[in-house]
Every structure is written in C-alpha cells, then in structure tokens.
Specification:
Length: 331
C-alpha cells in the first residue's frame, strides 16, 4: 500500500502564517524521509487559520527543500483560472523538479463568496464549463493542442522533459465520471464526504477511458487520521482538530487551531455526545488501530493509495502521527 500526505497549512493558535508555512515544508521533508509517496498542499482563500492561498508558490519552496517525494496541488481550483496559465505554472514546476510534479484539479471555490468574486468573474459559469477547461488544460500539459483550437499556436512553456501528472479531485459521481472520461487519475476526498465512496470509485473505474496508451485508472482515497502511541493520547491530540472544526462551523476559530488545553476548555459547556458525532469521519487511535482502519478503507474503496490529512496544534504531534503510521504500514 502506498501512503501520501495532504496538508492544508493550518495555523495553530501560537503560530504566525509564516510559522505554519515553514511547518508545512518541514512536514514534507519528514514525509520524504518516512517513505510517503507524495505531498500535496491545498488551496484556500481568505479562510482564517489556513495559510496557503497559492500552492504553486509553496511547491517551489517545498521542492527546493526536498529531493524525491512527489509534490503537487490538492487542489488547484480551476474555475478561478485560465487553463493555459495553470499549464504554464505546473510545466515550470515540472521543469525545476523533474518527474516529481502532480497537478490536482478541483472545482470548489475554496473560500467565501466575497473571496470568490475578488478572484474571478462568473465563477458559477466557469464551474459549469469545467469539462471544457479540463480538456484545455490537458491539451496544454500534453503539448498537443488540436489545430482547430483557438489557441493552437500557443505553447505552455517551458515544456518539461516529464510533464506534470494531472489528477482530478472530487467527492461525487460527477467528478468521478469527468475524471474517467478524460483518462485522469482520481482522488476521492473521503474525509470531506458523506457519499458512498466505494460506488463512486467503482463508477470511475468502469467508465475509465485511457488518455494515452496503456494507462490504467488510478485512485487515491484521502482520509483524516490522527495517531499517537496510545488511544488516550490520540484522543487528546485530536481534540484540537475536532474543536477547531466545530468553531469554524460556528463562525469562530479565527485564532487558528487551538491547543489541547484550549480545546478542553472550549468543550466544558458542550453536550457530552458532541464529540462522537464530530469523530464520525476521522480515524483516531494507536498505530495498530489506525493501521486496521486504513487497511479496511483501502480494501473497501479498492484504492491504489491512501492519502492522509492530519491537523494538530503541535507540528511535532503531526509529524509523530505520520511517523507512527509509516512505521506500522510502510516498514
């Protein structure tokens, strides 16, 4: 089983944005040393507590400070941008870091309606036009624009020796079919979905049409997980993420990911069964417990790879979580 990392560059309550971005780079370094296959970083706009609005900038920083781990966007939010510009950016990254770049494509706004309007015009129209935008992006990445295309004379320079690998990210049958029809690898966001992921992935595999010769469908399933030496420790560490998620739903959380003690203080006046509902979509446990649940998901979803997103207050706890999982599964 391959394991990878998705990072959202969360800012802890005792960090600056610069601290959080540095922690993301150090997590990529740790992931490389631990044997993780790839490190993706997400794109968010004007969301308190999340530091990365420009994955392409972070990938230059991370690529320069790592040597072999694949790096990419999880995801670049295509409706905000012209496909040609995205192809230029990721071709340049693939030129700088040969055979290491993934370009994950998503359709979400990644922020508030106000941020969306500031970023782009006619966002909903561009979401509707997503199938055409995906095709255009692939034309530019493949350096194979049809002669009848309005931009047939344009090249997304520089052209790397090994092009970036495109992935489509999603949580629905619609995204799975779009990936399959375009011969794209597919990343299913289990950690942010209440859909029947196994059925969605099966539909993707059944409809897959190779874009190039001998291509096979490829599936990543992204899960949320927090691992510690004991279940009790993992439960404590997870409180920061759980409470921050609750705060954000309530329009709070502007101070970033709370410490464990801050989280406990926040929960004092909450209903006792609240945490059980909040834990529904996250794996929490010691190494053996986390391994068992990840292996169950791997089989249930018929996944080629499991990607893990972990939010903790302490960067050390986050790296330790990934280390314990790697030691249990990859060693």
């Amino acid at each position: 089983m391959r394991l990878s990392i998705l990072d959202q560059a969360p800012i802890s309550s005792n960090q600056s944005a610069a601290d959080a971005l540095k922690s993301s780079m150090e997590l990529a370094q740790a992931g490389e040393n631990l044997g993780y296959t790839r490190f993706w970083i997400a794109e968010h706009h004007d969301l308190p507590g999340l530091a990365c609005s420009a994955p392409e900038v972070m990938l230059g920083y991370i690529g320069a400070n790592t040597a072999k781990i694949r790096i990419g966007s999880g995801a670049v939010l295509l409706p905000h941008y012209k496909p040609y510009k995205i192809a230029e950016v990721y071709n340049m990254l693939a030129t700088l870091f040969p055979d290491r770049i993934d370009v994950g494509i998503g359709r979400a706004p990644g922020g508030s309606a106000e941020a969306t309007n500031a970023l782009s015009d006619n966002f909903l129209q561009q979401v509707w036009n997503m199938p055409n935008s995906v095709k255009d992006l692939l034309h530019f990445i493949d350096n194979n624009v049809p002669p009848e295309h309005p931009h047939a004379k344009v090249t997304a320079s520089p052209i790397p020796t090994v092009p970036p690998i495109p992935w489509l990210l999603g949580t629905s049958k619609k995204s799975a079919i779009l990936a399959a029809e375009n011969g794209l690898a597919y990343a299913f966001g289990q950690f942010m979905s209440d859909q029947d992921g196994a059925a969605i992935i099966e539909q993707y595999r059944n409809h897959f049409k190779p874009r190039k010769n001998n291509e096979e469908p490829q599936v990543i399933v992204t899960v949320s997980a927090i691992c510690a030496e004991t279940l009790d420790k993992a439960e404590d560490v997870a409180l920061s993420s759980l409470v921050w998620g609750l705060q954000r739903k309530r329009g709070e959380g502007q101070k970033g990911v709370p410490s464990i003690q801050e989280a406990k203080n926040y929960l004092r006046n909450e209903k006792e069964d609240l945490l059980s509902e909040m834990k529904r979509n996250i794996i929490i446990g010691n190494p053996q417990q986390v391994k068992k649940k990840i292996e169950e998901l791997h089989v249930r979803y018929n996944a080629d790879e499991i990607m893990i997103v972990t939010i903790t207050h302490s960067p050390a706890d986050k790296i330790q979580s990934y280390k314990l999982i790697a030691d249990e599964i990859l060693r």
